[in-house]
Every structure is written in C-alpha cells, then in structure tokens.
C-alpha cells in the first residue's frame, strides 16, 4: 500500500483476520472480540510496525499471540469438545456440499492447534511457508510438516482416499485441504 499512514491499511485486513480468528476459536463472538483486541493493540503500537513490511503478517502475528494468551488465561473454562453447543447454533446442511463442509469443519476442529494454525495460515490465508514460520516463531520445515500432517489427518477423519474429491464450492476451503493452492488471497 502506498499510503503514508499504515493505520489506513488496517481495515483492509479485517475480513481475513476474522476468518483466521474464527478458525482458531470456532466461535464467532470470541473471534470478533479477538479481532477487536488485535486492532486496538495494532493501533496503539503502530509505531512498532515497519513501513514497507507485510502489514497482514504483522496483524496475524498479533492475532495469534492474542489467541494463545487468551487460551492460557481461560484454563478454567469448560470446552465444547464434542461441539454440542456449536451444533445447536449451526443451520443443518441442505445438500451434500453442505454436509461435507460440516464434516470438514468438524475434522478441522479435531486437529491439534498447531496443525490447524499452520494449515489455515498456509492454505486459507495464503501465506508462504516462510511467512507462516516467521509468524509462529518456528522453522519452515516445522510449518511444512504441520501442514502436511494436518492435511493427512483431515483426509483420514473424513474418510477420503487419494482418488476422491470433496464437493466444495469454496476455493478457500479447497486450498486448505489440497497441497496445491486453488486460489490465492
């Protein structure tokens, strides 16, 4: 972005931050709160942002750190492990594609946090392995490994064979589960 004030660019990344936050938290209200906290932190620390670097990666790093900080603080909360409460909030699928999307979301939710995070950063958010590794503070090989394990685990949980494909209408979802990106963001 060519604007002189990096704050002008913050709003452009809200939809991607919200999608990432929802994927991490699996709760829209909590995700919205996390995005709001991230924007406040970014706004108040904008002087720490290096103009000319990747604003989106900087914001995702703040969001990720906010998520893990909140997880450490909420050890006393009861988790919705089986998705019982979440399922009561969701609309039931109308056709096979929706059913597969429900299965996909459930499988995504069963991944280890680190694997889900790597998969979403690289697959859905379009970050390179190198950018994701930098945001997570790990080696590039670790991100690649987590991404590949996550894809394999989703395929296993959904009972997919190598020659099968999902009937998804969403390029973002397809890029998460396929090793070659369907689209970029």
UniProtKB/TrEMBL annotation:
It comes from Sulfitobacter marinus. Gene3D superfamilies: 1.10.1740.10, Winged helix-like DNA-binding domain superfamily/Winged helix DNA-binding domain (1.10.10.10). Residues 104-154 form the RNA polymerase sigma factor 70 region 4 type domain. Keywords: Sigma factor, Transcription, Transcription regulation. The lineage of its organism: Bacteria, Pseudomonadati, Pseudomonadota, Alphaproteobacteria, Rhodobacterales. Residues 12-76 form the RNA polymerase sigma-70 region domain. GO terms for biological process: DNA-templated transcription initiation. InterPro entries: RNA_pol_sigma-70-like, RNA_pol_sigma-70_dom, RNA_pol_sigma70_r2, RNA_pol_sigma70_r4_t2, RNA_pol_sigma_r2, RNA_pol_sigma_r3/r4-like, WH-like_DNA-bd_sf. Belongs to the sigma-70 factor family. ECF subfamily. The keyword Chaperone does not apply. This is RNA polymerase sigma-70 factor, ECF subfamily. One of its GO terms (molecular function) is sigma factor activity.
